[in-house]
Amino acid sequence: MKRIIKPFVIIFSTFILMASCLNSDRYNITYYADTAITSFSLGTLNRYLTTTSSTGEDSTYSVTVTGSNYKFYIDQLEQEIYNPDSLPVGTDVEHVVCTVGSKNAGTIIIKNIDSDTLNYFSSTDSIDFTTPREFRVYALDGMAYRKYTVRVNVHQEYADSFFWNPVGTCDMFKGLTAMKAIEYNGNMMVFGSDGAETHVYSTITEGTPSWAQLAENITLDADAYKSIMSYNGLLWTLNGRDIITSPDGQQWSVHSTLDGNDVADGISTLAGAGSKKIYAITSGGGIVSSSDEGSSWEEEPVLYDAENLPTRDISLACLTVNTNDNTERIVIAGNRDINTYAEDSVAMVWNKIEEYDDDTETHSWFLCNEKNKLGLPRLSNLQMLKYGYVLLAMGGEGQGTSSAKAFSQLYTSGDCGLTWQNYTGYTLPKDESFGNDGSNVFTFAVDSDNYLWIIFGGTGQVWRGRLTQMGWAENQTSFTE
User: Fold this and answer.
1) SS (H, E, C) 13-56
2) Which of 16, 201, 216, 463 keeps 20 to 30 A from 3, CA to CA?
3) How far is the C-alpha of 40 from the C-alpha of 42, rounded, in Å?
4) Cβ distance 330 to 279 under 8 Å?
5) Cβ 57 vs Cβ 116: under 8 Å
6) For 139-206, where are the E strands, in sequence order?
7) Are 470 and 388 in contact (CB under 8 A)?
8) What SS3 string covers 85-113?
9) Positive or negative torsion for Cα 216, 222, 224, 226
């Protein structure tokens, strides 16, 4: 790059030369007084990665990154230029070639990284963007300029890394015989049964959480934890034959009573809710739903043999269908009775499409248990949840003919419950202290910040973890104006 000693002198000299060369009645030269940077893009960049050989030796190799795929936002008000979608970790931004466009052919200048020296910008020169750089664009009349701070953002974490941290131990959980957690109003809440009643516990601090037991205004029976869910701004559960709701986990009121309703009489568990319906499992082996907050219930159409419906360890996940508007996929997973179906080696996973537009088809529930050796193992206290675009499940020791080990892995499904695999991107804590002292009592939940929570009843341990990319902000990555 050529060093600019007196940028204005050079610019004015250029103007004088142009004026003398074009001194003719046939030409009118306009020297604009305004300008701005109007476009900014990167060329091809190098990305350096490290791999480990089978002998344990590390080596580094490089790949290329197409910089033009990462759009840059130009904030004319704040005079900032940056890429909302960060470049991949390991990208070399010390040697960057970029292209810059300006309004009215303004002259682009770049300031040195460690001095006030100004240099002409060249689209063929390499620039160091390890720190923010100052760009200037001078108007053609030489009277004014605008300056911009340019930042090239690079991720500092690998997208597919999973990090877990222990966040304390709660002795109150150690005496529970069953538990289920749910995030509600920014707090993680645990509904735990001691075999006689269900008690409610809630986080009361951020960071490393501490827990408090809430004082309910009514007695929640021993099975109330099974049906806990959040729907339309309230907590819901089944308490005996009453569907009850609460705004805070303490003050509960009866919403409706199931007795006397031919369809609802057999409801044993509230499975969960989609965006517009509540779903429940019946003791007679069926699925029912309500679209009016539990006031009335309808039987759901079921393909195959309904005896394959789960009756215990019920979880429900709602997945958005991106290919169709106003459509979602509901997945229910659970186990059948251990005494009646002692030979089961896999859990029962069911799937249904719900379309909510007028004149759309009513779809049936269908069984996902294909004979592909990739079924979800039958695990004690099985629990499933939606995490981003996949389903995750985990549980205690294998039941029936399942030989799965307790809390040995996260089972991942990317095809809405059809197949389940041990995907290396989703891992459990590797810390030696991670464990439940032989107990199968635990709960598995996700919060609004995409942290996964594992809370053990045997040891009282609380773990929280997240896939790094699930913590990244979802910024706009393409701008047309």
Assistant:
1) HHHHHHHHHCCCCCCCCCCCCCCCEEEEEECEEEEEEEEECCCC
2) 16
3) 7
4) yes
5) no
6) 145-151, 162-169, 178-184, 187-193, 197-203
7) yes
8) CCECCCECCCCECEEEEEHHHCEEEEECC
9) positive
What gap in Å lies between CA 49 and CA 121, rounded to an integer?
30
As a whole number of angstroms, the distance between CA 137 and CA 371 comes to: 65
5 CB contacts (<8 Å, ≥6 apart)? Answer: none
Measure the CA dihedral 7/9/12/17, to 10°.
-110
Q: Which residue type occupies 358?
A: D
SS3 category, 463: strand
For residue 103, what are the contacts with CB-CB under 8 A and spacing of at least 6?
A: 34, 35, 36, 37, 38, 137
Query: Which residue type does 177 have?
Result: T
Give residue 113's region: left, alpha or beta (phi > 0; psi -120 to 50). alpha
For Cα atoms 124, 126, 127, give the angle at the middle one, nearest 5 degrees. 125
pLDDT profile of the chain (481 residues), mean per 10? 48 48 51 82 92 75 93 94 90 95 93 93 94 94 89 80 89 95 95 97 84 96 97 95 95 88 83 95 89 90 88 95 87 95 95 88 88 90 94 96 95 94 87 93 95 96 87 53 40
Helix (H) or strand (E) holding 9: helix 7-21
Residue 80: phi, psi to the nearest 5?
Answer: -130, 145
For residue 383, the surrounding DSSP H or E stretch is strand 383-387
Q: Provide the residue count of the chain.
A: 481
